[in-house]
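Posting this for the archive.
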Amino acid sequence: MKPQSARALAWMAGTLLLIGLAIPTQVGSVAITALAALVAIAPIVLGTPKLRLAAVVIVVLAAGIAASNYQSADQEMQAYRAHAKSR
């Protein structure tokens, strides 16, 4: 992989992390931050040392945000399921 490709994926992961923070629903936030963590794996494996460090920071932040929002996202989905079944 070219260094430019790894850098582009790191930027994409960072952007996804910011988007995940901006999404008001917990389910959407968990999904987008998990996607950011997945996208940041390629720069960890194939990037330069500085890029690897940045990607590790993104993965740690994304995992923390997703973990902290998971409980409320699960409650949000249970409420949605109950509402869908009542229709």
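The mean pLDDT is 94. The chain has four helices and no strands.
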